[in-house]
Amino acid sequence: MDVRNRIGWNLRRLRAERGLTQEIFATDSGIDRGYISGVERGVRNPSATVLAKIADALDADVAELFDLAKAKAFSTRRRS
């Protein structure tokens, strides 16, 4: 799994676990909703600073955005 897709799936997973829509999350994080959508789809390549803002808004560690096993498990559940 490409690292951008891994980050995207983990962002989507963490956001879903917290019951946040993209719009609410974008407002909370101060990042444009369209950009968040691009990160979740794996078409954006967020900087370390943006990853830190995302993690902070999710009250998570940046490392959680790179967790391959959780990304694969979530993507498999969502596609089923």
How would the blueprint of this fold be written?
Elements: H1 3-17, H2 22-29, H3 33-41, H4 48-57, H5 68-79
Helix pairs in contact: 1-3, 1-5
Q: Can you walk through the features of this model?
A:
- By secondary structure, the protein is mainly alpha-helical.
- It has one domain: 434 Repressor (Amino-terminal Domain) (Orthogonal Bundle), CATH 1.10.260.
- Helices cover 68% and strands 0% of the residues.
- It contains 5 helices and no strands.
- Helix 1 packs across helix 3 and helix 1 crosses helix 5.
- The two termini are 18 Å apart.
- 24% of the residues are buried.
In CATH terms, the superfamily is lambda repressor-like DNA-binding domains
Helix content: 55-70%
Beta content comes to under 5%
Strand runs, count: 0
Give the CA-CA distance, first to last residue.
18 Å
Which class best fits the helix and strand makeup? mainly alpha
User: Which spans of ≥5 residues are poorly predicted at pLDDT below 50?
Assistant: none
The CATH top-level class label: Mainly Alpha
CATH architecture: Orthogonal Bundle
Q: Provide the gyration radius in Å.
A: 11 Å
Keywords:
about 80 residues, globular, 434 Repressor (Amino-terminal Domain), single chain, mainly alpha
